Amino acid sequence: MKVNMHEAKSQLSKLGKLAWKGEEIVIAKAGEPWLHLMPYRERLKERKPGGLEGQISMSPNFEDEDEELIDAIRKSKIFPDEG
Asked: Backbone dihedral region of 16: left (phi > 0), alpha (psi from -120 to 50 degrees) or beta?
C-alpha cells in the first residue's frame, strides 16, 4: 500500500496495524517512495558457535558401517524396488 505523507500522519495507527498484519506500507513524499513502515522486531543476539566443548563425545566407531542395519533398511518398505 502506498500512501502520501499527509495521509500517513492522519492514519498512523491504522497503518501501523496493517503493517503488523503483514501489509507492506510505503509512505511517499511528493509522489515518490520515501519511507517503508514495518513492525519493530527485537534483534536476536548474535549466535556464537561452540560452547559445548568437552560435553559431547562420539563413539570411536561412529562412522563404521553397520551391515546388519544397512541390510534391514534396504529390505524395508523404504526401498520397495530393491531387495
From this structure: alpha
Instruction: Give, for all 83 residues of the chain, the pLDDT tens digit.
Output: 999 999 999 999 999 999 999 999 999 999 999 999 999 989 888 888 888 888 988 888 888 888 998 888 888 877 666 55
Q: Could you give the 3-state DSSP secondary structure of residue 72?
A: helix
- Alpha carbon of residue 41 to chain centroid: 13
User: What contacts 24, CB < 8 A, 6 or more positions away?
Assistant: 1, 36, 38
Cell of 30: 511528493
HSE-up (13 A, CA, CB side) for residue 16: 6
Strand segments, DSSP code E, in 1-83 are 2-4, 25-29, 32-37
Whether this prediction's pTM lies above 0.70 is answered by no
By DSSP bridging, strand 2-4 and strand 25-29 are parallel
